[in-house]
Amino acid sequence: MWNELWERYRASTIGIGAGFLLGVIYLFFGFWNMLVFAFIVYAGYYIGSKVDRREPVFPPINGLYQRFLDLAERWRMFR
């Protein structure tokens, strides 16, 4: 089972492991906030799954800038 996980979902497995390790470090210093721990593990999974699917982890800045320009153009008619 572990070999299949490692072969098929290598980056996701590393992401979950890294998120779990960072979450345990956080819990050691402040165990009262379990939501942050879950978020850190999920963030590791999310980044790892994006890498497994060969997708960009963060959207390109040009696409975000173009979306901003489209919204600015749409709102211009209300001035």
TrEMBL record:
It comes from the Bacteria. It holds the Pfam family DUF2273. Keywords: Membrane, Transmembrane, Transmembrane helix. The chain crosses the membrane at residues 20-45. The keyword Transmembrane helix applies. This is DUF2273 domain-containing protein. It comes from Ferviditalea candida.
